[in-house]
Every structure is written in structure tokens, then in C-alpha cells.
Design the sequence.
């Protein structure tokens, strides 16, 4: 009987996951159909404003097949899902012979690089600094300025921090490059010049995401530590005469890790949206810039492909976090 | 009789709240009055020379489209706040409704509603709004209301857990023992208790919607026939004002947006204080 509630939790969690996917697929399927007329014709009509399209006939045929225009709405929906299950996201309008998957695969590594680096840096730094400042509280002279600054930065949209950063460091001081992932004169390859150039270009977007993220994690952790400080086990540890530094690191911070990790999972969508905009500011060739160009070029298949992929990725991570990682950090969760 | 704000405001007498509201309303009133008094249409393109630095006629210069910046900022203030209030307001109303239904009925209804809330909580907002925005061409009010798709879930999720924990408290038990009906308890005992908390999450939701509105507009998916802070920054960024030293095309918008955020943050801190104190 003890395992039963745990199974129930997993079932509900999986149901949520499936529903999220279903909902996003529905959005992708029905939104184009809200446009007047046939979605393929409506999309092509908009594209026609931009000039004649090569391979237009193939596009029409292919999309009629992908969206399965013939038959009832249900038939069309089933056909669409079958195409999706085969990993077929269709052709890009803007760069026609290329498929959506190909276009995305070119942009994805850059975004992954930015996200991973900045999330790890900001989460670790924010947790540690927030922990120390929360622990020392009014004894630390950094407490008030750090908190005030964090409140300001964590409430500002990423791209606004990005614009300010770009203006100060790229335009005025000329310390970092204005745009791109590497200089156009350097041939990409695995050598020192390229790697240094690549890192130099990444400083801008990464710092912007880190500044914004760091202040969020700092505030969150500080609030958590202030709460934990009054718990009984801290008092007991102090009475036992455990060193202050050890109390903080292995008792106080350890107990705050769980909500901090949960928060990381919950904020992934927000972080991702923010990095998309930071990429646009720095013209970094990741998913954000891909989205921007797709919006400008009315490249609906790419917009939809990117968004479907993003929702799928974020939800898979959340599912893994909920079912595997959190129970490892706190075994009580699996028992509930 | 002397006017006493303490008596008038009751438990909503809070320094942060009053300061925040006074600051926010002065911003709104200055913008509204400024728009009426200055006889310039901020939406008309090409009225002035583009990219004029601040001068006597245009105190904040003009943008790359030849629009006056000062009136543009006034209009954006009103529009951005309208979008925020519409998105957050409808979201909070629906959220409170759904959250209290879930907490009130419990059982299967609760489970189903909770799964729905979770679904909307884990779908990232900006990407889906990008998708909707790229297909629809929206006006300011329509854009505001569209945000309800996401704002309701957070409120209803937290309202539900708040009501569930309040239900166990002594004063609710007392009301129940005295023969009060459940629905009456919800409206007379629980809602007034949660009011400051609901208002605080309303303010947070406004900030959230405004951030996302600015992001969407910055990507070129905003209300094109109108002005918001996001749209101002979009025009400035698209025409490269950033790299031409034309600071007046974007810096005032950022300062004003930050100012409004600070006002909203102070107000939400005030509501937080009240809800923790009661």
C-alpha cells in the first residue's frame, strides 16, 4: 500500500506531460486554420508580397500532404500527428529547399551553449552568494546594496539589460564585439584563434543572462536561508558548537537546495524566453535570431517548429526533474 | 472632523502602498494630461525631421520615423499599463474563480483542474505568444486580453493552496461550527482574508505581462498601429539608433519603464506586508 500514492503522483505527472504536448500540438495545428481560407494558400499569399518563390508548386503539394487538406478535420489532425511523429516539421519558407529540422539544427547548438553556461554560472554563484549574505544578514555591509541591485535587475526584462550592456560595453567602450558568434574573417575550426574569438563574442549575451539570473537566484536563496536560520536543527548545531562556516555550507545551504532546484525547473521557460531576446539584441545566431528572422520573413513552419521543440524540451526536463532528480535530492518526495 | 487616512484606509493603511500608489498615479496623470495638453499626435509619422536631438518643440527629440518622443512616451505609459492591467485583471478574476472552485469542491474536479493549471504553468509564455502574435495582428486591448491564457494559471494554483490551508484554521472551523454555510464562509471569511494577497499577485501579474509585452513588441510582434515601450525600443533598435548615439530614441523609454516597475514593486511590497501582517 505504501507505493500506491507514489504511483498516483507519477500518473498525474505523466498526464500533465501528455496534455502539455497535446495542447501545443493543437495550437500548432489549429492556429494556421484560423486564418481565412486554406492555411497553405494564406501563408503563400503573404509570401507572395515578398516576391516570386522558387519551388512554389512543390511547396503547395508538400504542405497539402503535410497538413492533409483533404478529408474531415479529424483526418487532417491524425495525418498531421503522423507527420510529426516521423519528425517531419516541413520545409522552411524563407530558405526553401532546407527543411525546418535542418534550419533548427544549425541554430540549436548556439542557444544550448548560451543557456547551459549562463544557467550554471548564475545558479551556482547566486546560490552561494545568496546563502552567505542571507546567513550574515545585517552583519554584512554588502547585504543592502546587493539586495537593492538584485531587485532592480531581476525585474528588468533581459533585452533591456542587454541594450544597456551593449550600449556601454560594445558601443561606448568597444570592449566586446557588437554582434555575431564569431568574426566573419575567421574560419570556424578547432583552433585557438577561433575558440578565443568565439568566447569573446559570447561574453556579451552570457553576461546579460547571468546578471539577470544571478539576481533572481540571489534573492530566492537569501529568502530561503533567512527562513532556515530559525529552524531547530540550526539552533542544535550551534549549541553543539559546530563551526559557523560548516553550519552554513553543510547544514543551511544543503537544506535550501531542494526549493532552489525546483525553482530552477519552474523558471526554465522564463530563462529560455529571456535568452531568446538576449540573442536578438546581440544578433547571436541561435534560436532567438532564427525566430526573429522567421517572424520577419513570415516563415510559419520554422516558427512553429521552434516553438514545438522548445515546449517539448522544457517539459521533458521538468518531467525528469520531477520524477528522477528531485526524489534523489529529497527522498521524502517519493514517499508522499 | 479631521481627515484621518488611517481610519479611511483601515488595514490598507501602509506607507509603501501609499507611496507606490501616489507615484504610479502621478505618472499616469502626467501622461494623460500631457497627451491632452501638447497638440502633437505621437502616432503620426513624418510630422518632424527624423532623429532630431532634444529641442524646444520636441523636449525629447524625435524618433527615426519622425514621431515626437515625449508624447510617444506618454502614450506608451498608458498603453503598456493598459495591456498589463487587462492581462493581469482578467487573469486574476478567472484564476480566483477556478482556484476557489478547485479548493471548494475538491475530489475529482480538483484533480482535473489542478492538472490543467499545471499544463498552463509549464508551457513557456513567450514562445506561445510569439506564435499567436505572428498569426494575429492585434490592437492594444486585444493583446492585453490575450495574456489571460497564461496569467490565470498561477493565480488559481496559489489561490487553491491558500484556501485549502485557510480551511484548516480555527476561525473557519468556528464559523463552520456556528452553522455558517460553506459558500458563505468562502465569501465572508476567506475572500476578505485573501484580498491583500490577491491584490499583490495582481500587481506582480501586471509586471509580468508588461515584461512579456515589451519582449513581444521588441521582436516586432507588438501592436504596430500604436505605441508601447516595446514598440519604441523596437523602432529604435530596428533603425540602429543604438549604434548611432541617438540615445533619446530609447533611453527615456527604458527609464520610464524602470520607473513604473519600481512603483509597481513598491505597491506589491505594501500588499505583501499587509497580507503577512493580517
Sequence:
Amino acid at each position: 500500500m505504501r507505493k500506491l500514492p507514489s504511483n498516483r503522483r507519477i500518473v498525474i505527472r505523466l498526464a500533465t506531460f501528455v496534455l502539455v504536448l497535446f495542447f501545443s500540438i493543437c495550437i500548432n495545428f489549429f492556429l494556421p486554420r484560423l486564418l481565412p481560407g486554406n492555411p497553405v494558400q494564406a501563408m503563400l499569399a503573404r509570401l507572395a508580397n515578398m516576391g516570386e518563390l522558387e519551388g512554389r508548386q512543390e511547396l503547395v503539394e508538400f504542405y497539402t500532404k503535410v497538413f492533409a487538406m483533404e478529408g474531415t478535420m479529424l483526418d487532417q489532425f491524425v495525418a498531421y500527428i503522423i507527420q510529426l511523429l516521423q519528425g517531419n516539421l516541413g520545409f522552411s519558407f524563407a530558405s526553401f529547399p532546407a527543411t525546418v529540422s535542418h534550419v533548427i539544427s544549425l541554430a540549436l547548438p548556439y542557444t544550448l551553449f548560451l543557456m547551459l553556461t549562463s544557467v550554471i554560472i548564475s545558479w551556482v554563484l547566486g546560490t552561494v552568494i545568496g546563502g552567505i549574505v542571507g546567513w550574515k544578514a545585517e552583519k554584512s555591509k554588502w547585504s543592502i546594496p546587493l539586495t537593492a541591485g538584485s531587485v532592480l535587475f531581476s525585474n528588468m526584462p533581459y533585452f533591456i539589460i542587454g541594450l544597456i550592456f551593449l550600449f556601454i560595453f560594445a558601443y561606448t567602450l568597444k570592449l566586446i564585439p557588437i554582434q555575431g558568434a564569431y568574426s566573419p574573417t575567421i574560419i570556424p575550426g578547432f583552433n585557438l584563434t577561433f575558440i578565443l574569438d568565439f568566447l569573446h563574442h559570447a561574453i556579451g549575451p552570457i553576461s546579460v543572462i547571468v546578471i539577470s539570473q544571478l539576481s533572481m537566484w540571489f534573492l530566492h536563496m537569501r529568502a530561503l536561508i533567512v527562513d532556515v536560520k530559525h529552524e531547530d536543527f540550526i539552533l542544535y548545531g550551534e549549541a553543539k558548537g559546530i563551526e559557523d562556516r560548516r553550519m552554513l555550507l553543510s547544514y543551511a545551504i544543503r537544506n535550501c537546495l531542494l526549493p532552489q532546484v525546483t525553482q530552477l525547473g519552474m523558471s526554465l521557460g522564463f530563462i529560455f524566453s529571456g535568452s531568446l531576446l538576449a540573442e536578438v539584441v546581440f544578433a547571436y545566431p541561435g534560436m532567438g535570431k532564427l525566430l526573429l528572422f522567421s517572424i520577419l520573413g513570415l516563415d510559419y513552419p520554422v516558427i512553429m517548429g521552434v516553438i514545438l521543440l522548445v515546449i517539448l524540451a522544457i517539459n521533458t526536463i521538468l518531467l525528469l526533474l520531477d520524477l528522477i532528480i528531485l526524489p534523489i535530492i529529497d527522498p521524502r518526495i517519493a514517499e508522499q | 472632523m479631521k481627515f484621518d487616512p488611517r481610519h479611511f484606509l483601515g488595514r490598507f493603511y501602509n506607507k509603501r502602498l501609499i507611496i507606490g500608489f501616489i507615484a504610479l498615479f502621478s505618472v499616469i496623470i502626467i501622461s494623460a494630461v500631457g497627451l491632452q495638453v501638447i497638440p502633437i499626435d505621437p502616432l503620426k509619422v513624418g510630422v518632424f525631421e527624423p532623429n532630431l536631438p532634444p529641442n524646444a518643440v520636441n523636449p525629447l527629440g524625435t524618433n527615426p520615423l519622425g514621431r515626437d518622443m515625449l508624447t510617444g512616451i506618454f502614450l506608451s505609459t498608458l498603453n503598456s499599463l493598459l495591456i498589463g492591467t487587462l492581462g493581469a485583471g482578467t487573469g486574476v478574476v478567472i484564476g480566483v474563480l477556478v482556484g476557489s472552485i478547485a479548493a471548494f469542491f475538491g475530489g475529482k474536479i480538483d484533480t482535473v483542474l489542478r492538472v490543467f493549471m499545471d499544463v498552463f504553468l509549464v508551457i513557456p509564455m513567450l514562445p506561445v505568444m510569439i506564435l499567436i502574435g505572428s498569426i494575429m495582428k492585434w490592437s492594444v486591448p486585444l493583446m492585453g486580453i490575450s495574456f489571460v491564457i497564461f496569467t490565470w494559471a498561477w493565480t488559481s494554483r496559489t489561490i487553491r493552496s491558500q484556501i485549502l490551508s485557510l480551511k484548516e484554521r480555527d476561525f473557519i472551523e468556528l464559523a463552520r461550527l456556528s452553522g455558517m454555510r460553506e459558500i458563505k464562509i468562502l465569501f465572508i471569511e476567506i475572500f476578505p482574508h485573501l484580498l491583500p494577497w490577491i491584490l499583490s499577485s495582481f500587481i506582480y501579474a501586471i509586471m509580468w505581462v508588461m515584461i512579456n509585452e515589451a519582449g513581444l513588441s521588441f521582436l516586432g510582434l507588438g501592436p504596430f498601429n500604436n505605441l508601447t515601450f516595446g514598440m519604441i525600443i523596437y523602432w529604435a533598435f530596428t533603425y540602429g539608433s543604438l549604434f548611432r548615439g541617438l540615445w533619446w530614441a530609447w533611453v527615456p523609454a527604458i527609464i520610464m519603464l524602470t520607473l513604473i516597475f519600481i512603483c509597481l514593486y513598491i505597491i506589491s511590497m505594501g500588499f505583501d506586508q499587509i497580507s503577512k501582517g493580517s
The mean pLDDT of chain A is 79. Residues 265 and 317 of chain A are 8 Å apart (CA to CA).
